[in-house]
Amino acid sequence: MKIINFDHFAATKMRQEVKDAMEPYFISEYGNPQSIHTLGDEPREALSKARLQAAELLNASSNEVIFTGSGSESNNLAIKGTAFARMDKGRHIIVSKIEHFSVLNAVKSLAKLGFEFSEVPVDKYGTVDPQEVKNALRKDTILVTIGQASNEIGTIQDIKEIAKVVHENSAAYMHTDANTSCGFTETDVKELGVDMLSAAPHRFYGPKGVGLFYLKKGIRIMPLIDGGIQEFGRRAGTENVPAIAGAGAACELAKKEFKDRISHLLPIQKAIKDGVLNSLDEVYLNGHPEKRLPNNLNFVVKYIEGESMLMWLNNNGIMVASGSACTSKILKSSHVLNAIGVDAALAQGSLLISLGEDNTIEDAEYFVKELPAVVKKLREMSPLYEEVMKGNKK
Amino acid sequence: MPVYSEKVMDHFQNPRNVGEIENADGVGELGNPTCGDIMKIYIKVKDDKIEDVKFKTFGCGAAIATSSMVTELVKGKTLEEAEKISNDAVAEALDGLPPVKMHCSNLAADALHLAIEDYKARKEGKGPIGRVETPEHDEDEHDLLEQA
After folding, report:
1. Which residues neighbour A182 within 8 Å (Cβ) at sequence distance 6 or greater?
2. What is the ipTM of this complex?
3. What distance in Å separates the CA atoms of residue A142 and residue A93, rounded to the nearest whole number?
4. Is B104 a catalytic residue?
5. Which chain A positions have a beta carbon within 8 Å of B39's beta carbon?
6. How confident is the model over A262-305, as pLDDT tens digits?
7. Whether A381 and B57 lie within 8 Å, measured CB to CB
């Protein structure tokens, strides 16, 4: 059976060009980039090339790019790195209610050490109002961190405006988690006006095990891993040269193919959105209708549970995700759906689709054709649906 | 390695005894929509034996499979025998469940016991019992991760 990956937020297939870029640094050019002798030459060159490729994607300078081990690490470095470096200036951090767990749990960990955080609300589409950020700013606010786009509902924030408000009204640093958005919406750091940005190459056909972190020149953070002088002293430890070389190649492709990728994704996204909303009753789209990533859709299908939907679709070769409690591993439904006002019971029927370059219009059509039978089967055995049907009969 | 055993997948994909029984002698409905699981079990009782049993479930793969399995285990059994079947026994009959599913989605035996209780209550003119809400999971994610 053909496997259709509609869960690219979990994993994208690495591009052959990316693998080719990584290949030399496993065995033949295995040296340590910090070595002064000849073995270090090629790996050092690879590092410097990858840094430039990443810098070009973000419109930064090479010396403003730090390679980390993951998108989550980049977020932790931004948040804890700022907190530890600036605790003499204040202990207050601002986040939104719909951040990724690598942001929310980082500030919760800091809260246990005496830091405070405010969660700004979002509207029903998951949009952060810059005015709300302004209202939350305090004299002791040292950092504002707002994700550029939600990894669940795809809503894109006006980071430029938020950064402007933060810088005009405070001395706080502005960080954006672009782990989901980078490669699929503009992440020009100068245009956005941010001090820090996290990005995840594995989301755009690069390797896992490497993250990007943009740190604007002059911004002061404390490293989370102390040791040698790797990554300008901001992240010690022998560099993962193959992964970094792969990340660089993925960045170069993302920049070169940016427009083509979006124009490939938009019609597929539209076909799924229209198909699902037209072929099923009691199904809703979450997130902003327009200001959203081209590769994400999030639906609530009423009266059924997401994991069982996911498992039936899996049976048909379609891989999706869900924000239901049962799929969460911590048995709580999505905090993002909760923040946009989706009732906890309805959030159980969440269906999360994330697209990529291997998807086609035919995939979208196949999905739209298969989904109604899955929903029907599960609704027929749902006591909630039974109640509704009986209620309608009365 | 698949998350679920072959037996769970079989019961999920080919659930036994799905549906409702018109004029059931006992109905057990258990769960909480905010947790993502509601199980409803209908029984028909004759001579203290479960003559027929059907279920409807809103929930994940484990919830559907355990509901299906419990109906298979108790069909034709005496009420006394059915009362002895535990949630763990149902999970065991399915060759186990992932640890995270053991307490949230593994309520099928409880729902069955509730159906028997409902049957007895009705006989005494005290039923029906109606839906019993299970408590929500309100632990903080961050604390849960720290415990893990």
Report:
1. A57, A58, A148, A197, A199, A200, A203, A204, A212, A254
2. 0.89
3. 6
4. yes
5. 383
6. 999 999 999 999 999 999 999 999 999 999 999 999 999 999 99
7. yes
